[in-house]
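Input record, target 12 of the design panel.
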């Protein structure tokens, strides 16, 4: 049982950009709302259909560097967000290599240890 504000399963909230180029349909552009080594959440002003495949790009600032991550992804879920007229999109990150997974874990670990660094 975690305390309020404690991330579950190494998921954090951090505002940094994310771009998704879908195999079919318009691209998605927004901010990362939450991230783990296997999923990424973002908010959009319009719903998207789950099941779509694409390529995701996002930036993780870590150790004074900006790391651009690229990976295949699938739209896992879309539901109304807390903010009216916004939608929370859950993206499953696919086929991440070990170095990318380590980078995401290090980023999550850094932010959970330094909550004041969140934006």
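The sequence produced for target 12 reads:
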């Amino acid at each position: 049982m975690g305390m309020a504000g404690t991330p579950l399963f190494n998921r954090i909230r951090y505002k940094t950009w994310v771009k998704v180029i879908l195999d079919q349909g318009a691209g998605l552009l927004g901010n990362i709302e939450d991230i783990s080594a296997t999923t990424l959440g973002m908010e959009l002003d319009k719903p998207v259909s789950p099941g779509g495949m694409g390529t995701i790009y996002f930036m993780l600032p870590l150790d004074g560097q900006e790391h651009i991550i690229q990976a295949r992804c699938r739209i896992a879920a879309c539901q109304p967000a807390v903010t009216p007229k916004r939608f929370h999109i859950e993206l499953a990150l696919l086929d991440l290599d070990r170095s990318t997974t380590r980078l995401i874990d290090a980023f999550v670990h850094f932010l959970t240890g330094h909550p004041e660094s969140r934006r």
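The beta strands are 17-22, 28-35, 39-44, 53-62, 65-80, 87-94.
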